[in-house]
Design brief:
Residues 26-45 bind DNA. InterPro entries: Homeodomain-like_sf (IPR009057), HTH_TetR (IPR001647), Tet_transcr_reg_TetR-rel_C_sf (IPR036271). This is TetR/AcrR family transcriptional regulator. It is a single chain. By secondary structure, this protein is mainly alpha-helical. The chain has one domain: Tetracycline Repressor, domain 2. The chain has 9 helices and no strands. The chain has helices spanning 3-19, 27-35, 38-44, 48-73, 77-93, 99-104, 112-138, 148-169, 176-184. Helix 5 (77-93) packs parallel to helix 8 (148-169), helix 7 packs across helix 8 and helix 8 (148-169) runs antiparallel to helix 9.
Length: 186
């Protein structure tokens, strides 16, 4: 069994999770899409929960890398927030929902381990947004009438929610930067 097959399973399952939902895809769907037998899928991921945990864990690692790259490439808080927003736009262009939003929509149906990891993933994003907003306030580029944590929650809610709306109505509007300005009060 090759690493390529394992990665193909992860990529295909991630797409299905983000376009159909966790509960809406099965190993039978993966069998058809990847072209291997269910028994082989179970070799890599004995349970669907194992597959889901691997997907979320890999997205958490990728998000940490994305944050490092954004911080390196964008010195301003607003630039960093726009770069973060562009990650949501890319997902929409690939006809996928944000992973956290897709998982949160099915939170009650997820195994406990995936619920915990989903909460952790949301908090990682909120913590980074809060840190970025604090930096913007200190540098005088952002102002807010609420706490940086509340503002981080508003920004993440806006990006997650707008992704769902655009995905549902199949409309691609590049509105992040000007609406972020409204949310951030700039």
């Amino acid at each position: 069994m090759s690493t390529d097959t394992r990665q193909s399973l992860l990529d295909t399952a991630a797409f299905m999770l983000r376009s159909k939902g966790y509960a809406a895809f099965s190993y039978g769907d993966l069998e058809k899409a990847v072209g291997i037998r269910k028994a082989s899928i179970h070799h890599y991921f004995p349970k669907k929960e194992d597959l889901g945990l691997e997907i979320v864990s890999s997205y958490i690692k990728q998000t940490a890398t994305n944050f490092e790259n954004i911080e390196h490439d964008f010195p301003s808080a607003f630039g960093r927030l726009c770069a973060f927003a562009s990650l949501f736009r890319v997902a929409r262009q690939e006809d996928m929902l944000p992973l956290c939003g897709a998982l949160a929509a099915e939170m009650a149906a997820l195994p406990d381990t995936m619920q915990k990891l989903t909460k952790q993933y949301f908090n990682i994003q909120l913590d980074w947004l809060e840190k970025t907003i604090k930096m913007g306030i200190v540098n005088g580029e952002l102002s807010t009438t609420c706490s940086p944590r509340q503002k981080a929650f508003q920004v993440l809610s806006f990006l997650e929610g707008s992704s769902f709306i655009c995905w549902a109505i199949k409309d691609e509007v590049d509105f992040e930067s000007y609406l972020l300005k409204d949310i951030l009060g700039i």
